[in-house]
Amino acid sequence: MPERTPLIxxxxxxxxxxxxxxxxxxxxxxxxxxxxRAEVMVAPPYTALAAVAGELEGSPIRLAxxxxxxxxxxxxxxxxxxxxxxxxxxxxxIVGHSERRQHFGDTxxxxxxxxxxxxxxxxxxxxxxxxxLEERQAEKTLxxxxxxxxxxxxxxxGDARERPVIAYEPVWAIGTGLTATPQQAQEVHAFIRSxxxxxxxxxxxTTLILYGGSVTPDNAASLLxxxxxxxxxxxxxxxxxxxxxxxIAAAG
Length: 252
Ligand code: PGA
Description:
Layout: E1 7-11, H1 18-31, E2 39-43, H2 49-56, E3 62-65, H3 82-87, E4 90-95, H4 98-103, H5 108-120, E5 124-129, H6 133-137, H7 141-152, E6 165-168, H8 182-200, E7 209-212, H9 220-224, E8 231-234, H10 241-250
Parallel strand pairs: 1-2, 1-8, 2-3, 3-4, 4-5, 5-6, 6-7, 7-8
The structure holds 2-phosphoglycolic acid.
């Protein structure tokens, strides 16, 4: 089986002023043990990206944007482009987070435009997909996930320098304290990997598939021990250095 370096990603959502973000970044930087196996990433709000970039300079911890618009520049008041995020030192940009889909009208089509624009800027997109509770109860999980994945990755250039990361985040598990069991998550991750084999061929074996949704220090190790779970996208538990560092340690 190909070696996939796990990625532990912290999504700070709409939390942290510049000062708070700097302090958290410093604590994480100081707490990540040397030689840790996982790659570590944090996604502060846009307003704290520069402050956190300064704090992480010279460290292997990666910076990410939480979202983006797809145009490079233009008269789009309030929007931020992938080029601007790359300029701030972002290595990753999250696209299609369920909160963007739910509150800001993102669709599979707009998420796809964002993903392609992120790749064009030389940045790695993290494509979030996942079903709602109603969809799971109606046994539509695999159908919804397949559609989000295929439409989200449509038009992916075969020669793209960067490969997208996929994050499976069941909507009913985000911020609710309800976590998919490792078996429930693995079932969907294996299904995603099989679809990626059709879409990306051998690149599917090295594509990271993260799990997200109420990941905590208590459940991280068992989730991460599943064969197709290659890391975690962590919201609430990434807002405190202590719990985030424990999740990083759980990645081995
Ligand atoms: P949570 O958020 O860990 O607070 O459930 C995960 C996410 O939204 O990425």
